[in-house]
Amino acid sequence: MSILSTRKADKIDSLAEGGTSLAMDALRRTFRSPVAILGLVIVGLFVILAIISPFIAPKDPYRPYPELQSELTPSNIPGPMPGFLLGSDQNGYDFFSRLLVGAQQTLFVGVFATLIGVTIGMIIGGLAGAFGGWVDSLLMRLTDIMLSLPSLLLAISIAALLPGSQWTVIIAVAMIGVPVFARLLRGAMIAQRSSDHVLAATALGVKRKTIVFRHMLPNSIGPVIVQATLTLATAIIDAAALSFLGLGDSDWRRAEWGLMLGNAQELLSVKPSLAFFPAIAIIIVALGFTLLGESMRESLDPKNRR
């Protein structure tokens, strides 16, 4: 009996291997695309910069310098000068060093906002897809309520209710992605219910927990990973939007691109580069994540499998 059960289990696993092979095939096709390679290069450079920026910044990004402060006036902010590649910001800090270190804080906000959104969304979507019935109906109605609100309006509402801090921005941006991830995983898991390996496991009397975690969830998580890549790009932009609207981090000294952009909006006529460089950095990084995510999505699309 045990030998027969082992053989049946092996048969179920072999039926599930199609999902793994399709995933590997999609991965190979993704990295044959020049667009995906460009996105990967941008993302890779951004991550490397975020890691090493505190070590390569020529000046302390959190200390004002007297030689810069002495040149500050309401109508003048020092530009490039010896020892300060991009000059000063509005507070006498080295602008170039703050721009470099800002990559780390921007990555921190984007990654944690995405991770929180993915985690909560997968819990909701996983429960809805695994149990169905009234659990599915209840959870999906909650996600419908969240989806009925414009994403930026939802983030603004959450940020306005909480005290201004970096974690407030992270939580507000994370909530935007929750209903998207929940519906995506729920739909993929419902599709898995009718697959051969899930039907075979159900016929053999395998416990629901084992079916969900061994057969359904691993084969449903691919689209979620792709969406997370795209969401990371929008998370960085949404965090910058909250800062620009004055609902971001209350610590103005923090070197983060969105916060730097928000603090520079009243100084465009004095020194436009204070807004120009953080904006360009945000655009390039968001473009990198978008190119990579879109390439991964197209590779997983059955219509593009040829």
TrEMBL record:
Residues 103-293 form the ABC transmembrane type-1 domain. InterPro entries: BP-dependent_transpt_permease, MetI-like, MetI-like_sf, OppC_N. It is a multi-pass membrane protein. Keywords: Cell membrane, Membrane, Transmembrane, Transmembrane helix, Transport. PROSITE patterns: ABC_TM1. Belongs to the binding-protein-dependent transport system permease family. PANTHER family: D,D-DIPEPTIDE TRANSPORT SYSTEM PERMEASE PROTEIN DDPC-RELATED, OLIGOPEPTIDE TRANSPORT SYSTEM PERMEASE PROTEIN APPC. This is Peptide/nickel transport system permease protein. It comes from Prauserella sediminis.
